[in-house]
Every structure is written in structure tokens, then in C-alpha cells.
Design brief:
With 320 residues, this protein is α+β, with helices and mostly antiparallel strands. It has 8 helices and 7 strands.
Length: 320
């Protein structure tokens, strides 16, 4: 009797110890499970973030035996599939719209050119007819607008032939600033020019660079005229050549600067506002630069200085 009574507390102690150990094992396993799930969730989140950041068509793939996590990944991948289908549909519609715009612009050019021909004949017969002069001028504006839409549509559709070659950009810069010199003098502009004697070579389409410079100089002259200043600077670094065109006019505020290269974006006193108010000039210039592997960058402090920088790639060094 005494022996069993002595063993009862010992048996209770052993039983309690076993229960504590079992509970510890259960909680530890639970801890490891939660910790492993948290690690997998972070890995899923990281992979999903990479996919969205890089705009790739990958899927979220994480190896796990956790059925709940596998279900979550399955639903995420379904959403990614839907996203890819929407993107593909959008790209098809965008390409079709650009092609349609290009075709419409091309089809409108021919009859309008014929109309301009007849207007010119009538004007030659009646040189003093002011109504004919105004009609011809407006028709020319419409043709120029159509030409710009046609150019932009071809650029955005990747249907523009460019002859990318190595050439020194110095002389082209001098020619462009000289073409505006008389107007700058007439308007009493302070002109600051820095074009080095050392030849700076770019890998670009010469005609496209010419068109971009003409657009940027025209914009600076037209919309920065109240500052009576024009700066033109040619510089380089290891990989790029830069052409800065600066003025000290009214400038562009931050909100407008974020959209100034957008297609058809206009605002009151905006530099992107062309003679027809279409907002295509800077858009075309930006697309031309991008097509050559370059860019146009805007930095503007209103009423202090506005700088449009054309960035062009240098020719790649050929291995001997």
C-alpha cells in the first residue's frame, strides 16, 4: 500500500512531463510550419513583385507541399494569365489603331494635295483675292497636320526607315543655330553657344537629328521669347553626346512637364502647342530620339531656365 502511494506522485510527475514534452513538440512544429509558410509567402510576394516590375510574362513558381499556398499561387497565376491576355489584346488594338491612323493620313494627303494645286492655280489667276490666299494657307496647315499625324503613326508602328550611321554632329549643330541667327538678332536675343572644335561622333540618323533640332529651336524661340535668351551647348560623356537648348522664358511647371511629350497634350502657353494647337511636335521629336536609341530630357525652372536635352548614342567601339 505504501509502495503504490509512493509511486502515485512519481507517476503523475512522469505523466505531466510527457504531456509538457508533447505540447512543446506540437508548438515547435507549429512554429516551424508558420515560419516556413511566412518564408514561402515572402518568396511569392518577391517573385510577383519582380514580374510586375519587369512587366514580364512569367508565372509565380515556388516549390512547397503546403496545399493552401499552392492554391494561392494557382489563383495568382490565373490573374497573371488574364493580365497577359488583356495586354496582348491591348497591343493588337493599339497596333491596329496606329496602322489605321497611318492609312487614313496617307489617304487624306492625296486629295488635299490636289486641292492645294487647284487653289494655287486660282490664286495665280486672281493674285489679289484675299479669300483664296487665306483658304490656301489653311489648306497648307491641314496638310502639315496630316503629315505630322502620318509621321507619328509610322514612328509608333515601327514603320520608319532610319539610316543609323556614324557622323560628326558638330557641323549639323552649327548649321541649325545659324538658320535661326537672323531671327535671333531681329528679336534682340542674347545668344550663348558652345560647340567644341573637337568632332563629336554619334550613331544616329542625320535627317532625324536635323528635324529634332529644328523643332527644339523653334519651340525655344516661340515660347521662350519673353526671356530674350537662347543657349545652345554641345557636350559629351563616355557613352553619349548631349545637345542642350536653353531659354529663360516663362518655363514649364512640374505638372505640365510630366506630360509635355504626350501625344496631343496641349496647355495654355505650352511649348507643345504647335501652330495648329495639336501638340505633336515634341511627341514626334521624342519618338525620333527613342527610335535612334536616344532620348529628350526636359528640365525647367519657371521664369529661370528651361533646358531640352537631346541625348544621342556614340558609335560602339569595334574590336580589332
Amino acid at each position: 500500500m505504501n509502495f503504490s502511494m509512493m509511486n502515485s506522485p512519481m507517476a503523475l510527475f512522469v505523466l505531466t512531463g510527457i504531456i509538457v514534452i508533447l505540447l512543446f513538440v506540437i508548438f515547435y512544429q507549429r512554429f516551424l510550419l508558420l515560419r516556413g509558410r511566412e518564408k514561402k509567402l515572402k518568396e511569392i510576394a518577391r517573385k510577383l513583385g519582380d514580374i510586375l516590375e519587369n512587366d514580364s510574362d512569367e508565372k509565380v513558381m515556388v516549390f512547397t507541399d503546403d496545399k493552401a499556398l499552392m492554391e494561392v499561387m494557382g489563383e495568382i497565376n490565373r490573374l497573371l494569365d488574364d493580365r497577359q491576355k488583356i495586354k496582348a489584346g491591348f497591343r493588337r488594338e493599339e497596333a491596329a489603331s496606329k496602322k489605321m491612323l497611318s492609312n487614313i493620313s496617307h489617304d487624306m494627303k492625296t486629295p488635299l494635295t490636289v486641292i492645294l494645286g487647284y487653289l494655287e492655280i486660282l490664286r495665280l489667276k486672281s493674285p489679289k483675292d484675299e479669300a483664296l490666299k487665306k483658304t490656301e494657307a489653311k489648306a497648307k496647315q491641314v496638310l502639315e497636320l496630316i503629315n505630322r499625324f502620318f509621321t507619328l503613326a509610322k514612328l509608333e508602328a515601327g514603320d520608319t526607315d532610319m539610316e543609323l550611321k556614324k557622323f560628326a554632329v558638330n557641323e549639323l549643330c552649327r548649321e541649325n543655330i545659324l538658320s535661326f541667327y537672323d531671327i535671333l538678332q531681329q528679336r534682340d536675343f542674347q545668344v550663348e553657344i558652345s560647340v567644341p572644335e573637337k568632332e563629336l561622333y554619334v550613331h544616329a540618323d542625320e535627317e532625324a537629328v536635323q528635324r529634332i533640332l529644328q523643332n527644339l529651336l523653334s519651340n525655344a524661340l516661340r515660347y521662350g521669347s519673353d526671356g530674350k535668351y537662347l543657349g545652345f551647348f554641345l557636350r559629351e560623356d563616355e557613352a553619349h553626346v548631349y545637345i542642350d537648348i536653353a531659354d529663360k522664358g516663362k518655363g514649364i511647371d512640374k505638372e505640365s512637364a510630366a506630360h509635355v511629350f504626350d501625344r496631343l497634350y496641349t496647355m495654355e502657353d505650352s511649348r507643345n502647342r504647335e501652330i495648329q494647337g495639336t501638340g505633336l511636335g515634341l511627341t514626334i521629336a521624342k519618338n525620333l530620339a527613342k527610335s535612334m536609341g536616344g532620348d529628350i530630357i526636359l528640365n525647367s525652372i519657371p521664369y529661370e531656365k528651361t533646358i531640352f536635352t537631346l541625348e544621342l548614342c556614340k558609335p560602339k567601339m569595334q574590336s580589332v
